[in-house]
Amino acid sequence: MPDPIDRIVDDLLPNAVPIGDLNRYYRNPRRGDVAAVAESLSVNGQFKPIVVNRGSHTGRLNEILAGNHTHEAALQRGWEQIAVTWVDVDDEAAARIVVVDNRTSDLAGYDTALLADILSDLPDLDGTGYDQDDLDGLLDDVELPGALELTSDGAGTGEKATVDYLQWGYMQWSSTRVRITAEEVQALDALHEKFVEDTNGDLGFGWHLMQLAHKQAAA
């Protein structure tokens, strides 16, 4: 786990105000994961300001329009200050800011393969909002390519040809996924079939493979 920060990052310190001076938006429809936000504050610190309406047009002073859950998480962690960006808008504009801040998050999507790759490269998942089950699910959802398309069919014609016996293969354990060749896939298939035949099931097949590897390394 990285060293905890649990504070406002240096560049935002000029925007810090007493946290007790702020008020949550009076009708926020969003229900966020405060625990995940609190973990992020612990690991990453506050790296973007929350948006607060001064309230001269609404009569509700220092009202948080974007960042209510960050404010709540910071309170839970005992913070005395939080970084703020100020606006001064009327009721209609305030409502629009609250709604669009939530809605744009809902509309956003992910490049699942890239996200899984980024998370897999991290030494741990602390402060990301993801856990190992989430990452395993992302890796499971990554679509594996089918047959490879070659620039030549091997006969010198230059025509593209799909060669059925050339396939992508992967092995995965924990958050590690590596590509394997078609020959390795065939070898694994043969080992798996033999293991199932001998044991009437495939429970323990991974351990069986590790034992084979240790025996071969010792030989």
- Count of extended strands: 9
Strand order of the largest sheet: 1-5-3-4-2
Query: Uncertain segments of ≥5 residues (pLDDT<50)?
Result: 150-154, 156-167
Instruction: Compute the average pLDDT.
Output: 82
Taken in chain order, the helices and strands follow as: EEHEEHEHHHEEEEHH
Outline type: elongated
Tell me roughly what share of residues is in helical segments. 40-55%
Keywords:
219 residues, alpha/beta, 5-stranded mixed beta sheet, two-stranded antiparallel ribbon, 7 helices, 9 strands, 19% strand
Descriptive overview:
Helices cover about 40% and strands about 20% of the residues. With about 220 residues, it is α/β, with parallel strands linked by helices. The strands form 3 sheets. It has a 5-stranded mixed β-sheet. A two-stranded antiparallel ribbon has the order 6-7. The chain has a two-stranded antiparallel sheet with strand order 8-9. A hairpin with a 2-residue loop joins strand 8 and strand 9. Helix 1 (about 35-45) crosses helix 2 (about 70-75) and helix 4 packs across helix 5. The two termini are about 40 Å apart.
Write the layout of secondary structure elements.
Layout: E1 16-18, E2 23-24, H1 34-44, E3 50-53, E4 63-66, H2 68-76, E5 81-87, H3 91-107, H4 112-121, H5 132-141, E6 147-150, E7 161-167, E8 169-173, E9 176-180, H6 182-199, H7 205-218
Parallel strand pairs: 2-4, 3-5
Antiparallel strand pairs: 1-5, 3-4, 6-7, 8-9
Helix pairs in contact: 1-2, 4-5
Describe the structure concisely:
Helix content is 41%, strand content 19%. It is of the alpha/beta class and 219 residues long. The strands form 3 sheets. Strands 1-5-3-4-2 form a 5-stranded mixed β-sheet. The protein has a two-stranded antiparallel sheet with strand order 6-7.
